[in-house]
Amino acid sequence: MATVTVAGAADEKRDAATVALDGCALGGNVRRKSLLCCGKPRDFTGDVVIVTNPNFDINTTIFKTAQGMLPRAVLKTKLGVHMYWSEKIVAEVTRMSRSLPQQCHINKPIMDFMSNECAFDMEHADDTFMDHLQFVTEYSEKHFAGHSPRVLLLHSIMGVLTNIFPMEMDKLPRLESLCTDFEMVHVMAFPSVQRLLYGKDLVGVLAGHGVEKLKSLESLTFHRVIDNKEMTIDAESLWIHLNYQLIHFLDFLPADNWENELSDGVFPTFIDTLKFLKDMGKLIANVDLDLTEKQSAVNHKSSSLGGFILNIIPNSVRKNALRKSVHEFSAMIKHSLDFKLNWKDQAKM
Predict the structure, then answer these.
(1) What is the 3-state secondary structure (H, E, C) of the chain?
(2) How many domains does the chain have?
(3) Which residues, 6 or more positions from 171, have their beta carbon under 8 angstroms from its beta carbon?
(4) What is the pLDDT along the chain (349 residues), one digit of tens a residue?
(5) Containing domain of residue 45, as a range?
(6) I need a labelling partner for 294 at 20 to 30 A (CA). Which of 146, 179, 303, 345 fits?
(7) Can you tell me the distance from the alpha carbon of 132 to that of 127, in angstroms, rounded to the nearest whole number?
(8) pTM exceeding the 0.85 threshold for the entire prediction
(9) Could you tell me if 162 and 75 are in contact, meaning their C-beta atoms sit under 8 angstroms apart?
C-alpha cells in the first residue's frame, strides 16, 4: 500500500482529516506516468522490452480464481511480465511527470476502512491492488474534474470481475456512511456495468439504438454483483459512469504491439466505449486515443504457452472467450447479467 501522510484538508461531505497519497507514487511505472501526463495510452513498441517474469504467481493475484489451464496460461503471459524501458522514454516521461500534482487527497476514514476492514492485500498484476486503485484515482482527479475520484478508489470494493469481494456485505452500511450518495451509486454499479460491458456488449446495445432514440433513455436496470439485488441508474448518471469505466480500462491496455492487440481483451471495449461517448457528446473525462501514432515496428511474440496461444487464436475467438468467462464467473455466484433499458414515455416507444 502507498505511504500516506495526514493532511489538513476537509472532506466534501463532512469535516474529516484526509490522507495525501504521495503524488504519482507509482515507482518506475513509466506506462502509468505517461497516461497521467498525456491523458491517452501510447504504443511504446521499440521503446520497451517485455520479458516474462519467472516469479509471477497468479495465485497471489485477483486473477487467482480464473479457471482452466489455457485461460490461466494466457493471463500469466499478459500479466506476468517485466518491462524494460529505453533511456529516451524514461527521460521523456520523467520530464513530463514533474508537472503532475504532488498529492492526491483521499478521505482518511475511507483509507482506514479499506486498510483495516477490507481485503485489498492481493496483487493486481505486476504490482499491488492498491497501486492500481491509486493510479485510477489519480487519473480521475487530474482528468475528470468535477467528479469524485473516490469512486475509482472504491470501484472494486463490492466485487472484482473474478469473483473476489474485498468488502463483506454486512459492512455496506459502514461504507455508505463514508461516501456521498453520488459516490455510492457509482461504487455499487461499477462491478455490474463492467460485466455488462464485457459479457453483454452493453455499449454495442446502446449504440444500436442511435443517438436520437438514446435521448429518450430514462435509466438502466441491472443486478448488483455482490448480492444480485436489482438496481437502477438514471441515464445521466450512466453517461457519467461510462466515463469512470473508460478511465479504468486505461490500466489494462497493452504498452506495445498494438497492431496485434487492437482486437484483443480490453482494447476493443475501450475503443467502442470511447467512440460511443464521443458520438453521444457525453465524453466528459479527458481520455483520448490516437491510432495514427506509431504502430508495431517489432512483432513481439512470447515463447510461453500463453504467448503461443495468443499468437494462433483469432481475435474473434479471444473476444468470445472473454465474454464466456464473464458469464461463467457470474453463474458461479448466481449473479444475473440480465439488464433492461427504460425509456421515457415507454408506452409510446
Answers:
(1) CCCEEEECCCCCCCCCCEEEEECCCCCCCHHHHHHHHHCCCCCCECCEEEEECCCCCHHHECCCCCCCHHHHHHHHHHHCEEEEECHHHHHHHHHHHCCCCCEEEEEHHHHHHHHHHCCCCCECCCCEHHHHHHHHHHHHHHHCCCCCCHHHHCCCCCCCCCCCCCCCHHHHHHHHHHCCHHHHHHHHHHHHHHHHHHHCCHHHHHHHCHHHHHCCEEEEEEECCCCCCEEEEEHHHHHHHHHHHHHHHHHHCCCCCHHHHCCCCHHHHHHHHHHHHHHHCCCCCCCCCCCCCCCCCCCCCCCCHHHHHHHHCCHHHHHHHHHHHHHHHHHHCCCCCCCEEEECCHHHC
(2) 1
(3) 117, 118
(4) 232 222 222 333 333 444 444 444 445 589 999 999 999 999 999 998 877 666 766 666 656 565 555 455 555 555 656 788 999 999 999 999 887 776 666 778 999 999 999 988 764 445 678 888 999 999 999 999 999 999 999 999 999 988 989 999 999 999 999 999 999 999 999 999 999 999 999 999 999 999 999 999 999 999 999 999 999 999 999 999 999 999 999 998 988 888 877 776 788 899 999 999 999 999 999 999 988 765 544 444 444 433 333 344 445 545 677 788 899 999 999 999 999 999 997 644 4
(5) 4-348
(6) 303
(7) 8
(8) no
(9) no
**What nine digits make up the cell of 172?**
455496506
In the numeric block, the cell 438502466 is attached to 220
Please give the grid coordinates belonging to residue 314: 483469432
Please give the single-letter amino acid code of residue 121: D
Place of cell 478511465: 247
In the chain, the amino acid numbered 73 is A
